[in-house]
Batch of 2 targets.
Target 1
Amino acid sequence: MRRGEAAGFGLPIAASLLVICIIVAFAIGRFPISLPELFQFLLSKLTGVPSGLSPTIETVILQIRGPRILAAVLTGSALAVAGTAFQGLFRNPLVSPDILGASSGAALGAVLGIFFSLDVIAIQAMAFAGGVAAVAAVYFIGSILRGSDTILSLVLTGVVVGSLLGACVGLVKYLADPYNQLPAITFWLLGSLSAVTPHDLVALAIPVLIGSLVLIAMRWRMNEMSLSEEEARSLGVPTHLIRATVITAATLVTSATVSVAGIIGWVGLVVPHLARFLVGPAFPRLLPTAMVLGGCYLLIIDTLARSMALVEIPLGILTAVVGTPFFIAVLREAHRSWS
Amino acid sequence: MRLSRRQTLSGGIATLFGRPALAEVGKIIDHAGRSVPIPPTVARVLPAGPPASILLYTATPDLLIGWSRALRREERAFLLPDVAARPEVGRLTGRGNTANLELVLKFKPDLIVDVGSITDTYISLADRVQEQTGLAYALLDGRIDRSADAYRLYGRLIRQEARLSALADQVDAMLRVIKTRVGVIPEGDGPRVYYARGQRGLETGLGGSINVESIEFMGAVNVAGGQRGGLANISMEQILAWDPEVIVTIDPDFARNALTDPAWRSLPAVRAGRVHLSPRLPFGWIDFPPSVNRLVGLWWLGKVLYPSIFPEDLRPIARNFYQQFYHVVITDDRMKQVMENQA
């Protein structure tokens, strides 16, 4: 009973946390902007009266910090929503959005783009295409191999194809020019939002919003997927269609985030557990909560990444360093909600 | 003499297995303090990595076995055609302590040379290869102000001291002029420079990194020098907070995009046209590979950073450098292309 009541508050709590995080994130950064200056900026945008602030401050807020905060929220919520959907679909708490090879496919696409010295937009396009192609291949091979257990053969195919793609990334790194391409590849693989421009934000937002909306709209159907295959079928649930739709939508958002932000692990694995701890395992509530919490989590991580040190700290490193102890603590409390 | 114990041991092992001990021939101490036997004759020299390839080409193109990586067409256009076409020999270094010894032996070198930073990794690799193959393997310091020493040491190794000391004297003279001119700028008073790498210009070399050696050599203040290290990612906000006076880059995409990107344009340096793209043919003028190719870049940096102390036309200086070090005569038009970064 208590959990049920608390669950009702889970989403509002997460949403207010996100609002607070966004406000705080705007006030933090390597370029000093004071709170009064931020307020002055906001006021002038609302009233249309010139703020009298230096144009550099406006550039930082509108061109650099603002897009980056939005990108962090979008990326985090996309990875969390994809992770939650996959954990439900595969009925496995260890699954993350890259289980079907989206990240490794995107990594190979981007690394090849860097290797052939393409421009930034082409590298992002190759990453996106790589992620989608990898999952399509896994889905195709998995459905050919399908034995008694569809889910198991999909996951296993994903793992195998993922490690093959990982080996290909390793080969490209080995062949890359050590002075120029190799550092670029390494930075890319560690994940960062440091280079996000307003233009990238649009490229990120469209697929992420489409995919997330599809998943949110499917949240009632996904509840039915937690039944076993036979049970679901006997109730008339179109399991194949639901599975294909969820995988397509989750792949769309994962590939889009990876193409802009590089590889960011952990979020899609950890945040669903956190959300489950907060609102319980029922999808209609879980999915939106995970989405908001994911945005929060990555925004906090990215704010640390861009402000802690003179140099950027790669997101892939911070998410793991912050995520591991956090995950262990949550797991201690939350394993009950799985059983 | 940090290596004396290992050296004694290897000598002992060599004697044990009946191979001629290293002590029987003339020996030389390389820049790592290692003892390297002077080969009786040297007709073939193998570079251990890209910096060594370049130094060996400038010194003795006739002896160079091949290149660490095959040269691109636009690079070959500025080198001796027959030497530039020599095969790719791969890298001995750069992957930690791994050398494919069969590959080394296949090329039948009389001498192996590595140029770069002297660290324990490269020292142990050199020791191991020298012990296992019996080939002389010399480590030369790749820092800019050790360039002349590197040429002289190499000259003694190949018994062509006169030929190489002529080149070393030229380097000495060049560096003396540059140092004297830069010397008038009080320490820490040079222009504040941001060194931009990557298509978005957000990678840079931290203080003391090999990537910014030429910039720091010229007395400029590296804005990222507050932290020591290698290459790192930097946030745009941090660059705006640094507000550098000059931006030097090796990336043509970045040099072009910075002029229109609103974030970069909010920097006074960008609006004032102070984004400078370094020439890069046949090899980079300021950063990579970190070898003697950077010497001509010092003049270029001088003109970028201190136009009043470096007033002379760069073209004849660069043409002379290409003639002396790359052994090619470049027309004025071609030199202009190199300096304006036209392909």
Target 2
Amino acid sequence: MDLQQERQRRKRLASLSFPEKIKIVERLRRVSDAAGKSGLRKRNIVTVAK
Amino acid sequence: MKTTLDMINRMQADGVIGKYAIGGAVGVIFYLEAFYTEDLDVFVVLPTTPGSSLLSLSPIYEYLTEHGCKVDGERIVIGDWPVQFLPPQGALEQEALDEAVNTDYEGTPTYVLSAEYLVAIALKTGRAKDYARVAMFLDQDAVNLERLNSILLRHGLLPKWERFKSKFSEES
């Protein structure tokens, strides 16, 4: 993905409604918490969840 | 999040806090794309006790624990969200609160700091993650530069801004 496509992707994600974006964050946090409990590194799991 | 904001609004209606506004990462997410964050930062005006100029977060903690919330270090968990309450540290944060944007979250009214104040506060705070957030706002043209310049000028942040811009243009 080139820089221009990446910017477009980010703009599209930014245009979601606030509740939609918060639901994404909450999902990332659940995945991260599960990773913490299983001893996996948070950074790796969050990257996968995205 | 809705439960969290409902409780904060209830606390405001009960006079425990004055005006408040969401800042930090969740404030940034209001304007940009979602990313991982652990907690919710809430800038808040605390009512002063008559005869005292001391500000204390204790009334917030007492109120919330009475309503079933649990303290987690310097944060307090409301609903599913650990929340950190931040009284204004200076004129910039006070002004940011005064100029906060009205919005709503699934029917619950709330307030978010404006994009320009989020950037100004991030510049002032100056950690690596704050600079990364400023870069995100610039990259996505999500900030009014004229308004931002006026805020930075008023609060003596233009030198920091110039340093940041020269670094940012080198890296992008």
